[in-house]
Design goal:
Blueprint lengths: L15 E6 H14 L5 E2 L1 E2 L1 H5 L3 H11 L3 E4 L2 H10 L4 E4 L8 H6 L2 E5 L2 H14 L6 E3 L11 H9 L9 E3 L11 H16 L4 E3 L3 H5 L8 E2 L22 E13 L4 E2 L5 E2 L4 E6 L21 E4 L2 E6 L7 E4 L13 E5 L5 H7 L4 H6 L5 E6 L8
Helix pairs in contact: 1-3
Keywords: Isomerase, Pyridoxal phosphate
GO biological process, one term: D-alanine biosynthetic process
Pathway: Amino-acid biosynthesis; D-alanine biosynthesis; D-alanine from L-alanine: step 1/1
C-alpha cells in the first residue's frame, strides 16, 4: 500500500473560493450602528454560520468592532458562539427547546420565548433552580410565524403568578424591505402597545431593512442580519454598505459552438451565431441555483472576467456552468483563470434575482467545496 503524505490545503486543488472581507463586515456594522437613534444598541445576527460566511471568523470580527449582543437561530449555534465569545449576550431566536432549559442557563444563552408554554417552562425552571437567567419574549405583530399573539402577551403581562419578566421584547417586520408597504406602519402601531404592556423591558423591532425605515422603528436594540454581509436589505436601494463576499471559480476549458447548436442539459439554449464559450467549475452543488441559468426564452445571471460581465448560457449543472466568452480575448480566458460568480463586479442580489430568489439564499447555500479565505480582521490586510 502506498501511503500519501498529508497535504496542507492551500487552495490549489479547489475548484473555487470565497474571499470574505472581515473589515467590510465590521464597517457595515459600524455604518448601521451610526444610523440608529441616540441610545439604541446595534446587535448582530450571525445565525446559519453567519449567513454562510463562517461564524468563527465573522463573530470575532463583529465583537472586535464593538458588537456585544448577538442573535442565532438554534441553541447549537449559541453554544458554538459562546465558545468564541465568553462575554457576549446571546439570544436564541428559535426559542426554548424541550428539556433544554438547564443547557441554556449553563451556557448563559437567552431563549427568545415564542409561546405561552415556553414561558411557563422557563419560569418554572428558573424558579426551581433558584437562578436569575434572563430571557426575551417574541410577540407576533403580523408575521404569523414565531411569537405570542398580542392577546397572549397582554395576559402574560398581567399574570403576577407567572414570574416571567422578559429583559427584551421583540417582534419581526414582515415587509420592511418594501418601505412603502402599509404593513410596516400597522406593525409599528401594534408593537408600540407592547411597550406599554412591558414597561421594564427593552424593545427590539428593526431588522436590517427596519433600520432603514427610520428612527421610529429603532427602539432600544436593532438586529441587522443580511446588511452586515453586504447584500441588499431594501427595495429602496438605500443600503450604502460594502460588499463582503467574493465567490470565484476556475475556468476549466473553452470551446467553440456553431450557430444552431445547443448548450447544456435539455438543449435549452441555442447559439444564435458561432461563438466561443467557457466551462466554469461551479454549479448547484456549490450554491449557484439552477434558475440562474439561461434558456432561449429567458436570460440568466452574469459572471465577470477581468471586470467584464459575461452571461451564463444554458442550465447550471451540479459541477459546472457555461458562460459566453465573446467579449473576452483568448489570452484572458486561459484554463485555470478565476471567474467571479458574484462579488464587487456582480452583485449577489443580481444573481439571486436571475434565479428568482434573494441574496440570503445564495449566501447560506455556499458549498463546502469552495475554499474560504479571510482578509482583514485578525488576519491582517491582504492575508
Amino acid at each position: 500500500m502506498v501511503s500519501t503524505p498529508a497535504r496542507q490545503d492551500d487552495g490549489s486543488l479547489r475548484s473555487g473560493r470565497i474571499t470574505i472581507d472581515l473589515d467590510a463586515i465590521a464597517d457595515n456594522w459600524r455604518t448601521l450602528s451610526a444610523k440608529l437613534k441616540t441610545g439604541a444598541e446595534c446587535a448582530a445576527v450571525v445565525k446559519a454560520d453567519a449567513y454562510g460566511l463562517g461564524i468563527a471568523e465573522v463573530a470575532v470580527a463583529l465583537h472586535a468592532a464593538g458588537a456585544r449582543t448577538f442573535f442565532v437561530a438554534t441553541p447549537e449555534e449559541g453554544l458554538a458562539l459562546r465558545a468564541l465569545l465568553s462575554d457576549a449576550v446571546i439570544y436564541i431566536l428559535n426559542g426554548l427547546y424541550p428539556n433544554a432549559a438547564a443547557d441554556y442557563a449553563a451556557a448563559n444563552l437567552r431563549p427568545v420565548i415564542g409561546s405561552t408554554s415556553e414561558a411557563a417552562v422557563w419560569s418554572d425552571f428558573i424558579r426551581s433552580a433558584g437562578i436569575a437567567s434572563p430571557a426575551a419574549l417574541h410577540v407576533d405583530t403580523g408575521m404569523n410565524r414565531l411569537g405570542l399573539t398580542i392577546d397572549e402577551a397582554r395576559s402574560l403581562s398581567q399574570d403576577d403568578r407567572s414570574g416571567f419578566a422578559p429583559v427584551l421584547v421583540i417582534s419581526h417586520l414582515a415587509c420592511a424591505d418594501t418601505p412603502s408597504h402599509p404593513m410596516n406602519a400597522e406593525q409599528l402601531v401594534r408593537f408600540r402597545t407592547l411597550k406599554k404592556l412591558f414597561p421594564g423591558s427593552a424593545m427590539s423591532f428593526a431588522n436590517s431593512a427596519g433600520i432603514l425605515l427610520g428612527q421610529d422603528y429603532h427602539f432600544d436594540l436593532a438586529r441587522p442580519g443580511i446588511a452586515l454581509y453586504g447584500a441588499r436589505a431594501s427595495t429602496s436601494g438605500e443600503t450604502p454598505l460594502r460588499p463582503v463576499a467574493k465567490v470565484e471559480a476556475r475556468l476549466l476549458m473553452t470551446r467553440h459552438v456553431r450557430k444552431g447548436e445547443t448548450v447544456g442539459y435539455g438543449a435549452s439554449y441555442t447559439a444564435e451565431r458561432d461563438m466561443r464559450i467557457g466551462l466554469v467549475a461551479v454549479g448547484y452543488a456549490d450554491g449557484l441555483l439552477r434558475l440562474a441559468g439561461a434558456t432561449d426564452d429567458r436570460p440568466g445571471a452574469f459572471m465577470s472576467i477581468g471586470g467584464r460581465k459575461v452571461p451564463i448560457l444554458g442550465r447550471v449543472t451540479m459541477d459546472q456552468t457555461m458562460i459566453s466568452l465573446e467579449s473576452i480575448a483568448e489570452d484572458e480566458a486561459a484554463p485555470g483563470r478565476m471567474v467571479e460568480v458574484f462579488g464587487p463586479d456582480i452583485a449577489v442580489d443580481d444573481v439571486a434575482a436571475s434565479a428568482e430568489t434573494i441574496g440570503y439564499e445564495l449566501l447560506t447555500r455556499l458549498g463546502q467545496r469552495l475554499e474560504r479565505r479571510y482578509i482583514g480582521g485578525r488576519h491582517g490586510l491582504g492575508d
